[in-house]
Specification:
It comes from Methylobacterium oryzihabitans. This protein has 415 residues and is of the alpha+beta class. It has twelve helices and ten strands. Helix 3 packs antiparallel against helix 4 and helix 5 packs parallel to helix 8.
Length: 415
C-alpha cells in the first residue's frame, strides 16, 4: 500500500515558525492525515506535539554543503531546491509512520444492515396495492412471535429447533429433502397471512353493508410478481427461482406444540407453515407466474374465525429490508414484547428464543454487532441499546416516540 500523500511544509519553513505556529501546523497535518486514513480526529497533547516537532526538524540540508545565507549561484539554488524535494519525498513515509504511532487506529466502516429498496418502488407506474403486513395468529394462546419458527440463517439448516417455554414445548422440523424454512422464506408466509387478513377486512365491510358475501377461501392464488413487491424484493430471474425453493421449505416445515399442564402433556398439535402449493402457470422464460397456496387450518381459523379483529400484529414494511436474520428476529421480538413501550431481554433468553445453534458468546457478539449498526442506520420503530444486567448484558428495545423517517413508508402501506 503506497504511503498517504501529505502536503508537507519544507523543513526550513517549518524551522522558521514559532512554537505555537509549529503546533498549529502539526495539528492541521494530523487532521489531514486522520481524514485521509479514516481515523477519528484527535487533539495532539503536549508530549505528542513535542515528539512530532523534534522528528520533523531533526534532519538538515548540511550534507549539500550550501552556504548559510541565500545561495549565490544557480547551481547552489538548484541543489537547494533539489535537496528540499528529495528530503520532502524521502520523509513522507517517515512522517506518516510517526503519525500512525501517535494517532488511534482507523475506525472500521460499519456495514449497512439493510438492503436497498427495489428499483420498482421508485417508479410510480409500477406501484400496486399492498395489504397491511400481519404476522402469525395466536394458536392456543401461543404467539409465534415469541420465538423464531424458522432458521435465522440464509444457508440450509437441517434438524430440529426446540423451544422449551413455560407451558409448552415447541419444535420446528424441516423436511429431509429441503431443510428448515428460513426467516427469508417466511416473507411468503407473511404475504399469505396478510392477504387473508385483508380479505377478511373486506368481507366484514361488505357484511356490515348488508351484502351477502362468501368467506375468504382456504386457497389463494398470488402472482409471484406481487409477492416480490410485497416483500420489497427486486424482480430478477433469481428471485423467481428462489420463490419455488422457499415454497418447498415452507411446505416441509412443521411446527409441533406440546401443551403442558403441571409438567405433563395435555395436547399435541402439529401444523405446517403452508398446507400445500401448486404452480398454476409459468412465464415464457420458465419462471413461476401464478402459484396456488393452501392456507393451513390454524392460520385460517385464527384470522377468519377469531374475534372481530384477528389476534395478529402488523409489521413495518421496512422489516423486509433488514438483511440479517438476527435483525429480523429482534424486530419481531420487539414488536410483540415492547409494542408501544419497551422490553428487555437478557442474552441467554434471546438465544433461547432465537433457535440459533451458536454458543452464547458468539450469539451475544452478533447481537452487539447488529445493535452497533443500528446506531448509524436506524432500526424500524425501535431504539436498541445494550445495557448491563445483574448477570449478563441485556437488550433494551424501546419504541421510537417521535416521527422517524423509517415510519413514513409504514404510513403509506399500513391501513
Amino acid at each position: 500500500m503506497s504511503p498517504v500523500r501529505l502536503d508537507l511544509m519544507p523543513i526550513d519553513a517549518f524551522s522558521d515558525l514559532g512554537l505555537h505556529d509549529k503546533n498549529r501546523y502539526l495539528q492541521r497535518l494530523a487532521d489531514e492525515f486522520c481524514r485521509k486514513t479514516a481515523r477519528p480526529a484527535i487533539a495532539l497533547d503536549r508530549d505528542a506535539l513535542s515528539r512530532l516537532r523534534r522528528f520533523y526538524s531533526r534532519r538538515s540540508l548540511a550534507d549539500l554543503k550550501l552556504s548559510v545565507s541565500e545561495p549565490s549561484t544557480t547551481l547552489d539554488r538548484a541543489l537547494r531546491d533539489l535537496g528540499h524535494a528529495v528530503k520532502l519525498n524521502d520523509r513522507r513515509t517517515d512522517i506518516v509512520g510517526a503519525l500512525v504511532a501517535e494517532l488511534p487506529a482507523p475506525v472500521p466502516a460499519i456495514p449497512d444492515p439493510y438492503r436497498p429498496a427495489p428499483r420498482e418502488e421508485a417508479e410510480p407506474q409500477l406501484s400496486f396495492f399492498a395489504p397491511s403486513i400481519y404476522d402469525a395468529p395466536l394458536k392456543d394462546d401461543i404467539n409465534l412471535m415469541d420465538i423464531a419458527p424458522f432458521s435465522l440463517s440464509k444457508n440450509r439448516r437441517d434438524g430440529v429447533i426446540r423451544y422449551e417455554l413455560k407451558d409448552c414445548i415447541i419444535t420446528i422440523d424441516g423436511s429431509a429433502s429441503a431443510g428448515l424454512a428460513t426467516v427469508f422464506d417466511y416473507d411468503i408466509f407473511l404475504h399469505m397471512v396478510s392477504s387473508l387478513a385483508d380479505a377478511v377486512r373486506r368481507y366484514r365491510i361488505d357484511q356490515a353493508k348488508g351484502l351477502r358475501v362468501d368467506l375468504p377461501g382456504r386457497v389463494y392464488r398470488p402472482n409471484t410478481a406481487h409477492i416480490l413487491r410485497f416483500c420489497r424484493r427486486n424482480s430478477g430471474g433469481k428471485q423467481y427461482k428462489d420463490i419455488e425453493a422457499a415454497l418447498d421449505r415452507l411446505q416441509g416445515t412443521r411446527i409441533k406444540i406440546v401443551n403442558l399442564l403441571n409438567g405433563r402433556r395435555r395436547e399435541v398439535v402439529s401444523m405446517p407453515l403452508i398446507q400445500m402449493f401448486r404452480v398454476v402457470s409459468k412465464t415464457v422464460t420458465g419462471n413461476i407466474d401464478v402459484v396456488e397456496i393452501g392456507i393451513p387450518d390454524w392460520v385460517y381459523d385464527g384470522v377468519v374465525h377469531g374475534d372481530t379483529a384477528p389476534q395478529i400484529l402488523t409489521l413495518n414494511p421496512e422489516y423486509f429490508l433488514i438483511n440479517q436474520g438476527i435483525g429480523r428476529f429482534i424486530y419481531r421480538l420487539a414488536r410483540k414484547a415492547a409494542g408501544q413501550g419497551e422490553a428487555r431481554y437478557g442474552m441467554s433468553e434471546m438465544l433461547k428464543r432465537s433457535g440459533s445453534p451458536q454458543a452464547l458468546p458468539q450469539f451475544a457478539h452478533k447481537v452487539r454487532q447488529f445493535v452497533t449498526q443500528t446506531q448509524v442506520f436506524p432500526f424500524p420503530d425501535y431504539e436498541l441499546e445494550i445495557v448491563a444486567g445483574r448477570r449478563e448484558d441485556v437488550l433494551l428495545m424501546k419504541a421510537r416516540q417521535e416521527d422517524a423517517p423509517l415510519g413514513v413508508r409504514s404510513a403509506e402501506l399500513l391501513l
